[in-house]
Amino acid sequence: MKHRSRYRVGALSPACLLLLACSSGSPSSGGSPSDEPVVGVAAAGPDDRRAERLALVDEHLVGSGIVDARVLAAMRAVPRHRFVPADLARLAYRDRALPIGLEQTISQPYVVAFMTQAAEVAPGDKVLEIGTGSGYQAAVLAEIVGELWSIEIVAPLAERARGTLAACGYDRVHVRTGDGYRGWPEEAPFDVILVTAAPDHVPAPLLEQLAEGGRLVLPVGDEYQEIVRIRRTPDGLERERLLPVRFVPMTGEAQERR
Ligand SMILES: C[S@@+](CC[C@H](N)C(=O)[O-])C[C@H]1O[C@@H](n2cnc3c(N)ncnc32)[C@H](O)[C@@H]1O
Hints:
This protein is an alpha/beta fold.
């Protein structure tokens, strides 16, 4: 595998990006009462909070290296407040990760946009997400590709995400409950595999399920991680280090192999 160690996406320095990118699992979000399981999705307001969403995109994403028009349009379209617990809906349009219960989080909007852009997602791509969580990242991807496959290891989160996605009209997102370490072989190969929990190594089954020209984008590491993009080229796999981040760890087989 060829390695490139430059940080290639985004105009900010790695140190700056680390502050921006703390996607999930930050110590300050643990232990909040909102870490309890929550049922249902936040109700849409009369205007679906579009003005707040546009402000989030214009103030925090445009100008911070997010330039892909499809990604910006998707971020403007998905009602993030419907993917967070109702008691945190007021914070939905801040650029920060939020707890969604069961010690998991919905990623920071900047990181969702960054990973979607890094994956170079385009209409017609076949996409697999590992770590459905709230379903928000899946909805952003669905805005671009329509249909996709997503795996969540925590059954109640998978169940809730299915409900939220359906209620928001994303009815071609197929959510499976299970360990994403082994991917979704029956649906492979994928043009894009996007992982939103951090293993300390790249799962070999995910590399095997990557189509020619496909991109695997994932955080890799222990406490501190980097978002890495691996591209399958005719000459083999190319690996690029993109962004320092902190995600929740990938559990299941990834945890057992640590
Ligand atoms: C940072 S959260 C994901 C955020 C999510 N993409 C969203 O938009 O809300 C990481 C998710 O990965 C899940 N996860 C961790 N290990 C996993 C595994 N081996 N397979 C599938 N999901 C996993 C966690 O349960 C958690 O819901």
